[in-house]
Specification:
2-enoyl-CoA Hydratase, Chain A, domain 1; four-stranded mixed β-sheet; 10 strands
């Protein structure tokens, strides 16, 4: 049974990460399901705009499921340092359609990266956005999106400390379009998607392509460096120690190697 729901309502597709008991953490199976959902959305001729969210009110997505026996980054094992596996982040799929992130609670790690690569973001008042992986010996995913979309002091503090940013601070920093009550989140996201879907699809696609091209020009070297650095971290002893410490609920013993 898929842990990713895919639903099209008129011209709007809603993709829901459906693991509320795990705060919508992405197991390896869920990551494959999300990969399939992005590919389906890209080729779906019946949709103009997408909304991605998580089940429940506690979390949008808290990242990869670190208690899963195997996570996506493990596929880098045995590969050269300049190798990078395809990600699950929206821009990497060249979707050709805008995505709205309806952030219903915590968006952390991979969840934050997915949200930051969305074109628009609506967040519930209880939401947070952050990259706690620094405390687990892991490289935050697509962190350059965070730098490019946020004041540097906000992004750097969150990345270096691992502390999440509140909904109010996210709005003040211009990271999200607006914050709403949890019960109003999907209504507002769907209203926003509906406004987009009313417009000429050809123009929407052109705007999306122009935006992505502009981002790609800024990102091309950053992504190459991230892939190299991220793979190096993934293959380190500290990465394994961080994950084990998290699972065993103890403080990590860093070796700096």
């Amino acid at each position: 049974m898929s842990s990713i729901k895919y639903e099209t309502i008129e011209k709007i597709t809603v993709i829901t990460i459906d693991r509320p008991e795990k705060m919508n953490a992405l197991s390896l199976d869920a990551q494959y399901d999300l990969d399939a959902a992005w590919k389906r959305f890209k080729t779906d001729e019946n949709t103009v705009v997408g909304v991605i969210t998580g089940s429940g009110e506690r979390a949008f997505c808290v990242g990869a499921d670190l208690k899963d026996d195997k996570v996506l980054s493990d596929r880098n094992i045995g590969k050269p340092p300049d190798y990078a596996e395809a990600s699950l982040f929206p821009r990497e799929y060249d979707l050709g359609k805008p995505i709205i992130a309806a952030i219903n609670g915590h968006a952390l790690g991979m969840g934050a990266a997915i949200a930051m690569q969305s074109d628009l973001r609506v967040m519930s008042v209880n939401g947070t956005l952050g990259y706690p992986l620094v405390g687990l010996g892991m490289m935050p995913g697509a962190l350059h999106d965070f730098w490019m979309s946020s004041p540097s002091v906000i992004a750097n503090y969150a990345l270096y400390t691992g502390d999440p940013i509140s909904a109010e601070d996210s709005y003040r920093a211009g990271i999200v379009n607006e914050i709403v009550k949890p019960e109003d989140l999907m209504t507002r996201a769907m209203d926003m998607a509906g406004r987009i879907a009313e417009n000429a699809p050809l123009v929407i696609k052109a705007i999306k392509r122009a935006w992505d091209s502009q981002q790609e020009i800024r990102e091309i070297k950053a992504w190459r460096d991230f892939a190299r650095l991220g793979t190096t971290v993934d293959l380190s002893e500290d990465r394994e120690e961080g994950r084990n410490a998290y699972i065993e609920r103890r403080k990590a013993n860093w070796k700096n190697r």
